[in-house]
Amino acid sequence: MLPTNSKSGHYLEVDVVQHGDKIDEKEKIKCPEGWEWTRNWQVDDNRAVDGEGWEYSVDVSYGVYGAIQKAYHLVRRRRWVRERLLKDPKAVIKQKELEEFEKEGWEYAPIFTAKFHHKERKIDFVRRRRWHRRMVSKGGKDAKVSMPPVCLLELEDEEESKSCLRNIPRMFVTFEKPHKYQMWAYIYQARNLLAMDESGMNDSYVRVAFCKQSAVTEVLTQTLCPTWDQTLIFDNVEIYESVENIAKSPPSVVVEVFDKDTVGKDGFLGRCVMSPTVRLHGHETPEPQLQWFTIKRGDEEGGDILAACELFLDEDAELPFTPPMRGDLYTVRSGVRPKLQRSAIEVLCWGVRNMKKFELTSVTSPSIEFECAGGLVQSDVIKDTKKNPNFEKPVLTRMIVNLPVEEMYTPALNIRVRDNRSFGRRPIVGVHSVRSFQKYRCATPQIIDQTDSGPRGPQKKGIADNVSTKSEEGSYVVNIKEWKKVKKKKKKEEIPEESLDWWSKFFASIGDEEKCGEFLNQGYDKMTVYQTELEKVQKFNGFEDFINTFPIYRGRAKSREEEADTIVGEFKGTFRVYPMPEDERNSPLPDTVFTNLPPGKPVECIVRLYVIKALELQPRDDSGTADPYLVVTLGDRKFDDKDVYKPYTVNPVFGRLFEFTATIPLVKDLKIAVMDYDLIGRDDVIGETQIDLEQRLLSRHRATCGCSKSYCKSGPNKWRDGRKPRTILRDWCVMRNKSLPLYTDEPCSVVVDEQTYTLAEFEEGTIIHTHLGKEQSRLALHVLNKLNIVPEHVETRGLYNKTQQPTMEQGKLQLWVDIFPVTEGKAPAAVDITPREPQDLMFDRDSGHKTFLEDVFEIEARMIPGGNWRPASAPWTNVGKDGFLGRCVMSPTVRLHGHETPEPQLQWFTIKRGDEEGGDILAACELFLDEDAELPFIPPMRGDLYTVRSGVRPKLERSAIEILCWGVRNMKKFELTSVTSPSIEFECAGGLVQSDVIKDIKKNPNFENPVLTRMIVNLPVEEMYTPALNIRVRDNRSFGRRPIVGVHSVRSFQKYRCATPQIIEQTDSGPRGPQKKGDEEKCGEFLNQGYDKMTVYQTELEKVQEFNGFEDFISTFPIYRGRAKSREEEADTIVGEFKGTFRVYPMPQDERNSPLPDTVFTNLPPSKPVECIVRLYVIKALELQPRDDSGTGKLEMTLEIMKRPEAEAKPAGLGRDEPNKNPTLDEPK
């Protein structure tokens, strides 16, 4: 449309041209063959257009249109659409084949370099087509051809060697006519699909593609485990392939799963590829079996789909009967679908936990829907989750459904949590899908006679009246030492047990007999130390014997990794699935399988957390250690031990008790975090662990307080539970509908669950001590220990960091938790787990314990940069943390009689920083018994410090160090500025020399005066005591700045030592230069005439021992800068290289009569840059490895470095000429 007047809005109609072609009027467009019109032409308003379907633009060629008309718009357009319906698919295919035949195979394009297309346009100026010619073997179809045919095309005006083009033609498999097939795709169900909707569910459907056809299933709304139960039939499938090949390799069936969206593109959930079962003779047996296929979405798994496919040869074969219909859809036929069984599902809907807000509003009144295989049950509504998050009626109505007999075909059970809000709104706030019923299946229940086991509840009234059921509110950290002071003193036992404590039991339980003392000899029982979390112990099964915890999801998960981020709460409950009886009238079911349920109201409890120690914590400091302390959180209660952190350790011993008063399940998650204390900055989280207290409280394994192996009234194994063993055993029988325990005195025995136990069989061969309690209580405890009850224990929990390496364990924490409900009476006294403290020991001089002293006394020291040595117990500075370089442990030489000989010898000790070496320290220790003994003289002073006394310090010798400071290489920038004018300082044993300054390192990186002034110092005679020579590289910058840009320490002089030089007469040996040219005159046959062969080394030339790395003149020293956290990272701090060497020799005794020469470095080459020609001859590569492996192979090569005149006399690059030019060889005779 073109306007005549833009203000008036009048437009003139003109012809519309697209891609250079005029578009016909819509009334002239005919419906293609095989199609028919279903509607009239209408304006397409399903776009960004105005009310009449127009869109506007500045010009036709502009290409950008808008729905709002502007004054500067000159053109407008609108689209007309008309709906058509496919009636004959075969006619459409034939019509396309006819059109392709009429085109004669031409392709069109504007120019040859443009993209070609099949439809000719007016702007096209070139066309092309490809010619084929059929070629068969001479022997006919049955002839065997060993090699493929080769096509030779002769070309004119070409050289003889290039007169033809060789090409292997393309191979085609031709068939006279196609075979007709039918493909049946059985789509039964899917599971574990990704959630694509904001509700956390999907509106799923399946698209199946086979050959040139595709079909879709129905859309199932709001489910992650849909059950379609649908058969898709592909009729009139023509395949141009032999029947035998189809039977061997049938075409693949592509199955894609989508999420239906009302707005926008449907969400792709994944795809899988199946191979159909080929049936060449119609309906055959056995029937195809449904299988689970993994749905792939990119590189990750997107769920599973249960399906199968059959491909029938539809050529006068008897096909199976059409599957039964469900509305307009075909279901999976009976021979393929899983065998169903009438089953019952019972739901124990206990409560919800930790529900997050929905639409900025708290979820306070939830209810839950359970759906499976067409069955649906609903729970009641929780009035207020803040007061009680449990349901008043947890046992729901039994759901009767038809479930598959085989577990692999079981449909999912969908859990939908709704929030009941005002005005009747019930939005879905979270979902979960139970994908397997295997762990919830049980036998069909039967009605049994109830035994008179008495009501479940408190103890006898006489006992209960003497117990206070109230407790003080709040939580606190118990100080065991203060509590022990208030406690009344008891009379001493006859057996001396002052040295036995809880730690004696712990050490005895982990097998440390040296620290447990006389614990085992007294006949006391050990406790169980689990090396994992208590929930991971196999016999306890995560304490899910009563209820399970199901995460509630909400929102869209893009991948499996992000699925955990959509958790918005937890559902507490469980299920029971069992088959219905065959004769339901004569075999009635009980009301429910869930009996003897605990009360659903919140329970006030006293929670005690005992933290023993941590193991193998991840270091957080640069020293390779950490300063850990504990932070314990329960609900809004939080305690930390920041004031008593454990410095410089990754295996701290805490020995701490935390006590809380909590109402479970309003508060149920106990979180224990191990933090790293930092004086400056925020403390780091090393790791944390979480314990679900509700699971332990409700579990029938009785995880509230571990039962010891023997019942003791006093002593180290004193009974620490608030309830007696007989009471616990009685409750166990009531909970499981067993008869009450029946006790007899002589002999002491008890009958539990129709089985008799005697005390003699349990205590046979054990030590009977005075701390044991009554016989019947001991017997009841022995029976409990056989009933899968949680024993007295210490569990080891893994620590994890959610922000850093969330799947990697950051250490372990040993602890245990006790839970005492207030309704069961007063909680017993706490256990004292205060860590042992070292005691002062006095040794008798005449007791002969010299060997014992040498074994026991160890001195631990830490090294501080720029400081002195001090013991590990010394206080650190208040400003910042001193850098920890490492520690070592030394054993002192014990002197019981004062100053003795021989003197102690200094030794090198390896400094350890974590698991790696942090250097060496030269030290020794002496331990003097200061009781009227003659001690050595006080060492000489250096200022306020004592030096090492003469008898211990190394023997020194006057020595000389000569330095050849050749130059620096590859210096990196310092403070974003290039290092251009370096100089070097050399320091050793108090001596210091400096080099001159390189004027410009880019022009000449060598020093003009490489030989420095001789350094005279006192060095130890023995090489092991030699101090290091420190090399400091400085950059001489403007304004007198000389920053240190790199350092290096030469730790040994052994390779640089030489004899004392002497002055000798210089002989006129002539200048140093090349050899004579007489070596070039060689002739004759190479091998026959006895010519010498070259040397082929099997390693790098630098590694050949006789060449010594070519360090006979100068050596290469790496220059370091920056902080290295470990030896592995030390190589990352290299910023350059220093080229030079040293000579160390003793000074002559008579320096006057034996003068030294000026230097030992003579006949030095010039230090100016030399222009050279470098030739690299690469022969071949050997044993190359794949790129992913560490090894890469070997390379045979040779290298020549020559000055330009030498290179011109010996040219290179003539490898294609005869090899007799350099040296010139005569022709062989």
Automatic annotation (TrEMBL):
Q: What is its main location?
A: membrane
Q: Which InterPro entries match?
A: C2_dom, C2_domain_sf, C2D_Ferlin, C2E_Ferlin, Ferlin, Ferlin_DSRM, Peroxin/Ferlin
Cited SMART domains: C2 (SM00239), DysFC (SM00694)
- Which segments carry the region annotation Disordered? 448-468, 1203-1229
Keyword Ubl conjugation in the entry? The reply is: no
A GO biological process held by the record:
plasma membrane organization
Taxonomic lineage is: Eukaryota, Metazoa, Cnidaria, Anthozoa, Hexacorallia
Would you tell me the protein name for this molecule? Myoferlin
Gene it is expressed from:
MYOF
The species this protein belongs to is Stylophora pistillata (Smooth cauliflower coral)
GO cellular component, alphabetical, reads:
membrane
Tell me if Repeat is a UniProt keyword of this record.
yes
Its subcellular locations are: Membrane
